[in-house]
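In the laboratory, one determines a bound structure by crystallizing the protein with its ligand and collecting diffraction data. In a computational setting the workflow is compressed into a single prediction: the sequence and the ligand go in, and a structural description comes out. We illustrate the idea with 4-(aminomethyl)benzoic acid.
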Amino acid sequence: IIGGENSPRGGWPWQAAVRLRGSQADGRLVCGATLIHSCWILTSAHCFKRYGNSSGLYKVRVGDYHSLVPEEYEEEYAVEKIILQPRYHADSNDYDLALVRVSGHRAHGGGAAGECVRLNRFVLPACLPARRERVPKGISKCYITGWGDTGRAYSKTLQQASISVLSKRHCEQRYSDQFTSRMLCAGSTHNNHRVDSCRGDSGGPLVCERSSGSWVVYGVTSWGHACRLQDAPGVYTKVSTFVPWIRKVIGQ
Ligand code: 4AZ
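The predicted complex, in structure-token form:
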């Protein structure tokens, strides 16, 4: 995250990370992700472009704040399966969404029936938007979060930044037909304080607070022209488009 700040501990309890498992690169950050159900995280499909989509290569970490310090509510889970959005093709950024099912916590014991990730004050799912729901205009505060590049290096602590969802015109002007109706355009509206997602934040959430106080994952960090360039807003997969597919896959 460029132009962000340290998040409060436990401030974004749905923030998860996909990390490499085993080998020399154990624990290396692959992508951000959002817990949307005790057994499922939402991330972007392009996260699996580099190392492939076989589940044994990855693990999911939840409840984390400082990536190098073991914390009380931090847990890691094996990946049971990775489901890429069927219309995603690795040669474009369209349909850039994936669902990852995590293995249950039998090894740790003490979980509720049908639960995979153990939920608590530091580990809670975000809400899905309604099908075709638009981001509420004006009233809602939206944030991006992640451990990705801050402009100097990847962050050790979870970063947050307040961001505005922009009209699609901003991204259509900048990216022409690479920007599709499956995408959201977001960035900062003033030029002297740029805010953006960057390498390593991909797959992570763009959340906004509804007037009811619930937090909804409207976007999944996907792509953009570098980070923080003038007139280069960030592009996020529009989750509301995919709610029927998500519900079908996760079975609710
Ligand atoms: C990336 O390289 C990346 N500002 C992620 C997000 C954005 C640009 C690049 C959007 O993963």
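The pocket of 4-(aminomethyl)benzoic acid is lined by residues 196-199, 201-202, 221, 223-224, 227, 234 (CB under 6 Å). Keep in mind that any predicted model is a hypothesis to be tested, not a measurement.
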